[in-house]
C-alpha cells in the first residue's frame, strides 16, 4: 500500500507546479491587461485546482475506506466503501462545476433580464460590468446598441411632432386665407393667391422629401453607366449658379478632365444635389469645392460647420443640427439621410468630417 509520505511528495510537486503557473500568469499580466478577468482563466484555475484537491482527498479516502474494510465482510461495510468512492468520484467535479457555472449564470441572468426589458420597449436598461472580459465585451456592445435604439426612438417621436408642425403650418395658413375669402372678409388678390401658392409649394416640398427618402431605400433598377465626372459636376454647378450667386458662394472644381465614374446617373445626381442644397441652406459658406481622387469624391465648404457631437448623426433620418422648427433652419432632416441611402445602394460609403473651417463630405467609391 502506498504510504502517506508518497502522497505528500506528489502534493508538494503539484503545489510547486501551481506556483510556477501563477508566476508565469503574473508575468504575462505585465504585457496583457488583466488576464485574470477572463472566463477561460477562471475555468482553467478551477480545473487546475482539481489536481491538488484530488491529491488531498486520496489519502483521506484511503483512511476512511481502510476503516470501513474492517467491516468489509458485512453488507453494510461494502455499501459504505462504495459510497465513499462514489462521493469522491462525483462530488469533487460537481462542486467545481457549480463554481464554474456561477461565473456564467450571473452574467447570463443579467443579460436575460435586459432582453426582457428591451422586449417591453424599455430603452433605458444598461448592463453592468461583471469583471469577466468575455461578457463585458458583449455587454459593452449591447449597451451601445441600446444607446442607438434610444436615439432612434427619440428621432421617431420627434418625427411625429415635427411632421405634424411642418404640415399644419401651411395648411392652417391656407385654410384661414380661403375661409376669409369665402366669407368675403378678404378680397381675392394676386398677393393672396401668391401666399396660397407658396404654402402649397411648401406642402409639396415636404411630401417630395418623404417620397424621395422612400424611393432611396428601394433597390436601384436602372443600370450604372460611365459618367464623365467633371462635365457632370459642371452641369450641377450651372443648375445652382443663380442660388450660389445670391448666397455669395464661389464654386470650385478640382476634377481631372478624363475622370470617369461608373455609377447610376440619377443616384449620383441626387447625392450631389442634396449636398449642394445642404450647403446653400445651412453652411453660411463663401466657397464650395468638389474634388475627385482615385477612390474618393470630396464635397467641402468653408462655412460654419457643425458641432463635433453632431457629426456621427448627420446621416440619421430626421436628425437636425438645429432643432428649431423654422423652415429656414429646420426641416424634416431627410436630405442627408437620402444621400446615405443612395450611396449605400451604389456600394459606396459616405462620412462627414470637420473641414477646419466648414464641413467636408467624403464619398468613398469602390473602384
UniProtKB/TrEMBL annotation:
A Pfam family per the record: HisKA
Say which species the protein is native to: Ktedonobacter racemifer DSM 44963
Q: What class of enzyme is it?
A: transferase
**According to its UniProt record, which reaction does this protein catalyse?**
ATP + protein L-histidine = ADP + protein N-phospho-L-histidine
Q: Where is the Histidine kinase domain?
A: 162-367
Q: Identify the EC number(s).
A: 2.7.13.3
- Tell me, in one coarse class, where this protein mainly resides: membrane
Domain HAMP span(s) in chain numbering: 102-154
Q: List locations, semicolon-separated.
A: Membrane
GO molecular function term, any single one:
phosphoprotein phosphatase activity
Which residue ranges does UniProt annotate as crossing the membrane? 6-31, 43-65, 77-101
Q: What is this protein called?
A: histidine kinase
Identify the InterPro entries for this entry: BphY/WalK/GraS-like, HAMP_dom, HATPase_C_sf, HATPase_dom, His_kinase_dom, HisK_dim/P_dom, HisK_dim/P_sf, Sig_transdc_His_kin-like_C
Q: Which GO terms describe its biological process?
A: cellular response to phosphate starvation
Q: Name one GO cellular component term.
A: plasma membrane
Instruction: Print the keywords alphabetically.
Output: Kinase, Membrane, Phosphoprotein, Transferase, Transmembrane, Transmembrane helix, Two-component regulatory system
Amino acid at each position: 500500500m502506498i504510504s502517506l509520505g508518497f502522497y505528500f511528495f506528489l502534493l508538494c510537486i503539484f503545489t510547486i507546479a501551481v506556483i510556477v503557473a501563477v508566476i508565469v500568469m503574473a508575468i504575462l499580466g505585465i504585457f496583457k491587461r488583466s488576464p485574470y478577468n477572463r472566463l477561460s482563466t477562471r475555468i482553467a484555475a478551477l480545473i487546475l485546482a482539481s489536481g491538488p484537491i484530488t491529491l488531498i482527498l486520496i489519502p483521506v479516502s484511503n483512511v476512511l475506506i481502510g476503516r470501513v474494510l474492517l467491516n468489509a465482510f458485512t453488507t453494510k461495510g461494502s455499501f459504505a466503501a462504495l459510497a465513499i468512492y462514489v462521493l469522491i468520484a462525483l462530488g469533487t467535479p460537481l462542486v467545481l462545476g457549480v463554481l464554474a457555472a456561477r461565473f456564467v449564470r450571473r452574467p447570463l441572468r443579467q443579460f436575460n433580464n435586459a432582453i426582457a426589458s428591451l422586449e417591453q420597449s424599455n430603452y433605458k436598461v444598461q448592463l453592468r460590468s461583471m469583471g469577466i472580459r468575455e461578457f463585458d465585451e458583449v455587454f459593452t456592445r449591447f449597451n451601445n446598441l441600446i444607446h442607438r435604439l434610444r436615439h432612434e426612438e427619440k428621432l421617431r417621436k420627434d418625427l411625429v411632432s415635427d411632421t405634424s408642425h411642418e404640415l399644419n403650418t401651411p395648411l392652417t395658413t391656407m385654410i384661414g386665407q380661403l375661409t376669409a375669402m369665402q366669407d368675403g372678409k378678404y378680397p381675392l388678390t394676386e398677393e393672396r393667391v401668391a401666399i396660397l401658392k407658396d404654402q402649397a409649394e411648401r406642402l409639396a416640398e415636404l411630401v417630395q422629401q418623404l417620397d424621395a427618402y422612400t424611393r432611396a431605400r428601394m433597390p436601384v433598377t436602372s443600370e450604372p453607366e460611365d459618367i464623365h465626372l467633371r462635365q457632370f459636376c459642371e452641369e450641377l454647378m450651372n443648375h445652382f449658379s443663380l442660388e450660389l450667386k445670391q448666397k455669395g458662394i464661389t464654386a470650385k472644381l478640382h476634377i481631372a478632365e478624363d475622370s470617369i465614374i461608373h455609377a447610376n446617373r440619377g443616384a449620383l445626381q441626387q447625392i450631389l444635389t442634396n449636398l449642394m442644397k445642404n450647403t446653400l441652406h445651412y453652411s453660411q459658406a463663401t466657397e464650395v469645392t468638389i474634388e475627385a481622387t482615385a477612390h474618393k469624391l470630396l464635397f467641402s465648404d468653408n462655412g460654419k460647420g457643425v458641432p463635433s457631437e453632431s457629426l456621427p448623426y448627420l446621416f440619421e433620418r430626421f436628425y437636425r443640427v438645429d432643432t428649431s422648427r423654422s423652415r429656414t433652419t429646420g426641416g424634416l432632416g431627410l436630405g442627408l439621410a437620402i444621400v446615405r441611402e443612395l450611396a449605400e445602394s451604389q456600394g459606396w460609403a459616405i462620412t462627414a468630417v470637420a473641414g477646419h473651417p466648414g464641413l467636408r463630405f467624403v464619398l468613398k467609391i469602390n473602384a
